[in-house]
Amino acid sequence: MARVRQFLQGASVSKTVRLLRRLVIPAAGLVLLATGLVSAQQPVPTHALGAGPPRAVIELFTSQGCADCPAADALLKTFVDRDDMVALTLPVDYWDYLGWKDTLAGPRNAERQRAYVERFGTGTVFTPQAVVNGTMEVLGSDANEIDRAIRATETALSSSRIPVLFWHFGNTIIIETGGAAPEAEPREATIWLAVVQRKVDVPIKGGENAGKTLTYYNVVRELTPVGVWNGRPATIRLARAAIMRPETEDLIVLIQEAETGPILGAARLMGN
After folding, report:
1. CA angle, residues 183, 188, 190, in degrees to nearest 5
2. How much is the pTM?
3. InterPro entries of this UniProt entry (predicted)?
4. CA geometry: angle at 201 spanning 204 and 56, to 5°?
5. Phi then psi for 174, rounded to 5 degrees?
């Protein structure tokens, strides 16, 4: 049975504008532009990856202190290995009181999960929970439920998908987004950048999973809003050195309505 914890109605959720302020740093830091598509006269980029939106973005909220989570963590690996999926692990910290402090968790992951719960109207956060394409939540260890959610949300979002190109050129990371279809309803979306560690092995020395070594895949070490999509094509340039951390390898970009709404576009950039 999944771990269930009552949702706190007053829980705070980080707002895009607040987090964007954290990106305003001196010249050596991030440079944020929304100036249209990259000019054809620019040099050909290296390590380019162009990707249409994947079939699904799967976010797994998990905890090292939850006995029900290892099965979900292992299941996520099957989606990580698929080219048509973006699968992410977001460890949460609210089970730390059970005797083991999650070594990968951060409060922002729990805030993001609570924001989803508030929007879905389910009233509780639990682990393992999978959120598919920002629109459906299911038990993260149930492969059949995840597959059903993928099929349902893929169909529902098919007319809203936004193409994304993602590459790095020298020390600059470039994100290009397409525009909305002419007949589409006006909408605004957050452009998220996730800094990801591909694989982490963690020996657990306390709590419900004591004695086990658990393996996590595509662990989100930082999830930051880097821009706002307003329906028009845009380009964002970011300084690579200001983003990457020593333990991380890959980057994922998400275009998500509001902050925790439907995911309209996504792409990955392999770090090496």
Report:
1. 135
2. 0.83
3. DUF1223, Thioredoxin-like_sf
4. 115
5. -120, 130
Neighbours of 235 (CB within 10 A): 17
> Across the 272 residues of the chain, what is the mean pLDDT of every consecutive 10-residue run?
44 38 30 32 42 82 98 98 96 96 96 97 95 98 98 87 89 93 84 96 98 98 95 93 84 94 92 64
Q: Kindly state the helix (H) or strand (E) to which residue 230 belongs, with its residue range.
A: none
Distances (CA, A) of 227 to 13, 149, 240: 18, 28, 16
Residue with tokens 């038990």: 139
What is the predicted pLDDT for the residue at 158? 81
63: tokens are: 């905890």
The rounded distance, in Å, linking the Cα atoms of 198 and 88 is 9
CB atoms under 10 Å from CB of 148, counted, come to 14
Token digits of residue 217? 């895949």
Domains of the chain: 3-269 (3.40.30.10)
Rounded Cα–Cα distance for residues 104 and 90 (Å) = 8
Give me the residues paired with residue 267 across strands: 253
